[in-house]
Specification:
Length: about 210
């Protein structure tokens, strides 16, 4: 039984490593190198040690973890999403814009924190919770994932569900709902990933029957 499972993992890894359709940075070798460097860097950052044996253990551990997760969790093609461009220039530009995006997100989080504190401390508790649904115009899995997490990280809004391009978001007040309706985060994420989008219309969900998982 164990031998059969290991053989399945080996075949899956071989198929992904020898993906003849992969181009540019989509090639497995580049993805693996990037992940191993990131995981090994995290290993060093958390341990604070730079001796050779410890670094070697970190690289071996990163490779082992990546091997298992690639075989189990990574699909061949994300269902319902487009593959991002394979050009290295696109990847470099996206990483650069993502670095700029994070401080803007932190600023939005700080502003939203002040808004939520105001709602909590106001004796009248002027909250107006709502559940809204919209179809994301973003085309790639990564851009939708960044949008979903950005919404959740911003106090006052939570991504309740993301199924392919369908988002369900809970908003604590009309102000936060307006932010989602204007597509502030959506337009920024679209810019990071080089996508041109139109802000979708929101639909209010008023009953449990409307929330179809």
């Amino acid at each position: 039984m164990l031998h059969a499972q290991l053989e399945t993992v080996r075949i899956a890894l071989r198929m992904r490593w020898h993906d003849s359709n992969a181009r540019g940075w989509h090639r497995p070798v580049f993805r693996w190198l990037a992940y191993i460097v990131l995981l090994a860097g995290l290993w060093v950052a958390l341990s604070g040690r730079l001796d050779g044996l410890f670094l070697a253990m970190g690289i071996i551990s990163a490779t082992a973890v990546l091997s298992v997760t690639e075989a189990i969790f990574r699909p061949g093609d994300p269902v319902g999403f487009e593959r991002p461009p394979a050009r290295f220039s696109w990847l470099a530009g996206t990483v650069f814009r993502l670095v700029i995006y994070f401080p803007l997100l932190l600023r939005d989080i700080a502003v939203a924190n002040v808004h939520v504190v105001h709602l909590v401390l106001n004796p009248r508790m002027p909250i107006s919770p709502s559940l809204v649904e919209f179809e994301s115009p973003l085309r790639t899995e990564a851009s939708n994932a960044v949008l979903a997490n950005s919404i959740t990280l911003t106090p006052g809004t939570v991504t309740v569900d993301m199924s392919a391009n369908r988002f369900i978001v809970h908003c604590i007040s009309e102000t936060m709902r307006q932010e989602i309706q204007e597509g502030v985060l959506l337009k920024r994420v679209a810019h990071v990933f080089g996508e041109k989008v139109e802000v979708p219309k929101l639909r209010n969900l008023t009953s449990a029957e409307e929330v179809k998982w």
